[in-house]
Amino acid sequence: MSAQPSLVLVRGDITEQHVDALVNAANSSLLGGGGVDGAIHRKGGPAILEECRALRAGHYGGGLKTGSAVATTAGRLDARWVIHTVGPVWSREEDRSEQLASCYRESLRVADELGARTVAFPAISTGVYGWPLDDGARVAVEAVRAADTGVEEIRFVLFDEAAYAAFEAALS
Ligand code: AR6
Description:
Blueprint: E1 6-11, E2 21-26, H1 35-44, H2 46-57, E3 69-73, E4 81-86, H3 97-114, E5 118-121, H4 133-146, E6 153-158, H5 161-171
Helix pairs in contact: 3-4, 4-5
The structure holds ligand AR6.
């Protein structure tokens, strides 16, 4: 599609980023939860949940599938859109990394549809969903590097030092 996006690492809170779109590590209900999801809804305000409810009342009656992505307003956040995606729960028995890679790919596809140029991602699935950080970082970096996207900047926003270090290692 265009030149490779630049990949940027930031240690911090994704809800404080100024970007076109920020990605939410949601669950299939789209109706909120803990972690990044809780923080986004708290800071973004009720407009996000309102749109999520409307999605559930329409095309997403069965919820959002793992590895898929859908956008809503970003409410009061310093962004135009929130792109909600559902990461896989980590499994020792089953390799679900293709589903995790799909979260990054699909989020970028939605970002392209919206015309977003800057997109912030959290480390999807590495919190409540239990994905080991090093592997989650590897899958994330490989997926965005392989994506064909018009997004110019992909910013990984890592909440703590361990997550930052994992992404730094995955990038190098
Ligand atoms: N900014 C950036 N990263 C954050 C923030 C923040 N404000 N808060 C947490 N993290 P998680 P998951 C990091 O649990 O594993 C929710 O209940 C966190 O340290 O948010 O995909 C949903 O509703 C971790 O590295 O998402 C789902 O039910 C990463 O973000 C479920 O959790 C992801 O942690 C999804 O679990």
